[in-house]
TrEMBL record:
Homotrimer. It comes from the Bacteria. This is PTS system lactose-specific EIIA component. The keyword Transport applies. The keyword Protease does not apply.
Length: 112
């Protein structure tokens, strides 16, 4: 059985991975705004790797609870879940904005 301390440590790991992803997504949007769409998409993939790492940490606890363990959830874990979910949503939004920036750039080039 996972202790409250272990649950909290997994929560910290989720926050760290999701935070890395969020920072990378912000950088990707800056690249797209500047017209570097190749780098923006590379950074999206890098952010996705961090999201996957966070999700793997989350899955450890989901599997344990599904197996019948009674886990003590801490506020850190609640924060971790919130951070991961908002980062996943932000990834979708970042991809949308990158595609929009690219389309705007293409349209502006046609107007020249």
């Amino acid at each position: 059985m996972t202790t409250r301390e272990e649950v909290s440590m997994i929560g910290f790991a989720i926050v760290a991975h999701a935070g890395d992803a969020r920072s990378t997504l912000l950088e990707a949007m800056d690249c797209a705004k500047g017209g570097d769409f190749t780098q923006a998409r590379t950074l999206i993939e890098e952010a996705n790797e961090s999201i996957v790492a966070a999700h793997k940490e989350q899955t450890k606890l989901l599997s344990e609870e599904a197996g019948g363990s009674d886990l003590e959830v801490s506020f850190i874990m609640i924060h971790a879940q919130d951070t991961l979910m908002t980062t996943m949503l932000f990834k979708d939004q970042a991809e949308y904005f990158i595609n929009s920036y690219e389309r705007i750039t293409q349209l502006e080039e046609k107007l020249k």
